[in-house]
Design goal:
10 helices; disordered N terminus
């Protein structure tokens, strides 16, 4: 009864929000790309507004410490405002910053990083690295489309979620996804709508690597909640052959993923700077922006300042994205990753590329590591690329005094700031440099990199 009463109360609260447009002066930008205003003394986060603008907005949400709104008209535009390329901007949640000049987007992300370091970690870098950027359109090679059959519209929608996550955005194309995928969204939606199982397909994952003689490197993984009819399977195969896509099916968990067509598609991507080819599976994690990935690896290796005789520890190693390039320039590198499947594929990639000086171990880096053999070995340098939760546990248990440098690649500035505070304020390290990398242009996602060195007496 309490749950029902709470739900009813929330509905009444939403219903009481005054939808009358109001004028707002935008004075700042939130970490997720919304404008900051004040209304009746309370903070208001306004989607689609930029600092220095005067806009008409409507309130869309209410919270204890702030309210939410969206822009309905720009009365006075900021110089940094540009026309969004995508007609779905403002409805689709895939990008939140297309209205913001590209150069200003990366500077805003840099401010987010530095503010997090100072506010959460109570640290400042000795120097700020120049921002790393690459292609800002047609860059995304991995992602997940939501799928929903909408009976009222008489069609199946395929795309990212709307800004209201209850709904799937009705999109015809996506400019940030690789063109061979982003320009085929309507065709993918029509394909799903033609299936008998169109109501039983909740999502389609896409990933792209290098072209092969059989297909053009793009793979779609179709999640389906009910068995597919022979007609559905034939339709999917026909689409795959016409588009030169690989199609995988996922009727259950991750271990249920299997190819439909071709019979054995080989997915891979190359890092030509290091003469490397990485083989991967359709749901594996790979960096979404291939051009930026190469620049990021080069920057990480340069900041690490490794020497030919070094042993390097690479934590959260994945497929070996950093491990194998490192192996080209040091005596030995040890990669540690929590997912056993990725560890196996990292080992296979090392063998495939003729690399004998890279070891890989599977270990949960958020649990007791005292019995792990690599924890008792000596290393010269540390590179880590943790998930959003950061690396606080493993940093607290590593014998840090052995390392001459630490390079930390981060996908979440708050967890990086927390861990930087630990290294600097509790363990006596110096934050020598930090900077941002635009892995996801036109979104508010902040990818960053930091380098630590022992504090000199």
């Amino acid at each position: 009864m309490r749950q029902c009463a709470a739900s009813y109360s929330q509905q009444r609260t939403v219903a009481r929000i005054d939808k009358t447009p109001f004028e707002a002066e935008i004075t700042g930008l939130t970490h997720d790309g919304r404008g900051v205003a004040r209304r009746d003394g309370k903070a208001m986060f306004v989607a689609g507004a930029l600092p220095g603008e005067r806009v008409m907005a409507v309130q869309t949400g209410r919270h204890r410490n702030f309210d939410e709104g969206r822009t309905v008209e720009v009365l006075q535009a900021a110089p940094e405002r540009v026309e969004p390329r995508c007609g779905h901007f403002g409805t689709c949640s895939g990008c939140a910053m297309q209205h913001f000049d590209e150069a200003q987007q990366i500077h805003a992300k840099q401010r987010v990083l530095l503010e997090n370091l100072e506010r959460i970690g109570h640290v400042r870098p000795a120097r700020v690295l120049p921002p790393l950027a690459d292609a800002s359109w047609g860059y995304r090679r991995k992602g997940r489309f939501s799928v929903r059959r909408v009976e009222k519209k008489g069609k199946t929608l395929v795309g990212f979620r709307e800004t209201d996550p209850r709904f799937v955005a009705e999109v015809t194309h996506c400019h940030t996804v690789l063109p061979q995928i982003g320009e085929r969204i309507e065709a993918i939606a029509a394909l799903v709508d033609s299936l008998d199982a169109r109501r039983d397909v909740p999502q389609i994952e896409f990933i792209a690597g290098d072209p092969t003689p059989e297909f053009d490197g793009v793979a779609l993984t179709v999640r389906h909640l009910a068995p597919l009819s022979e007609g559905d399977r034939a339709a999917l195969v026909a689409f795959a052959q016409a588009e030169r896509f690989a199609i995988f099916l996922q009727p259950g968990g991750l271990d249920s993923v299997h190819p439909l067509w071709p019979a054995d598609p080989q997915l891979s991507f190359s890092l030509p700077q290091w003469d490397l080819q990485f083989k991967f599976r359709p749901l594996d994690f790979i960096q979404v922006n291939p051009g930026l990935n190469g620049k990021m690896i080069q920057t990480a290796l340069d900041l690490l300042e490794s020497e030919p005789g070094d042993r390097v520890l690479d934590l959260f190693a994945g497929l070996g994205n950093f491990t194998l390039p490192l192996a080209r320039r040091v005596r030995e590198v040890v990669g540690v990753e929590g997912e056993a499947g990725l560890v196996q594929r990292a080992r296979e990639n090392a063998e495939h590329n003729g690399i004998a000086n890279a070891q890989f171990h599977a270990a949960d880096l958020a649990k007791d590591l005292s019995r792990e053999p690599w924890m008792r070995e000596r290393f010269d340098r540390l590179l880590l690329d943790p998930p959003r939760s950061g690396a606080d546990f493993v940093l607290a248990h590593l014998p840090l005094a052995q390392f001459r440098r630490i390079v930390y690649v981060s996908c979440h500035p708050a967890s990086l700031a927390r861990d930087a505070g630990f290294l600097v304020n509790e363990k006596g390290w110096k934050l020598e440099a930090a900077g941002v990398m635009d892995m996801f242009p036109h979104t508010a996602h902040v990818e960053s990199i930091a380098v630590f060195e022992p504090r000199r007496a």
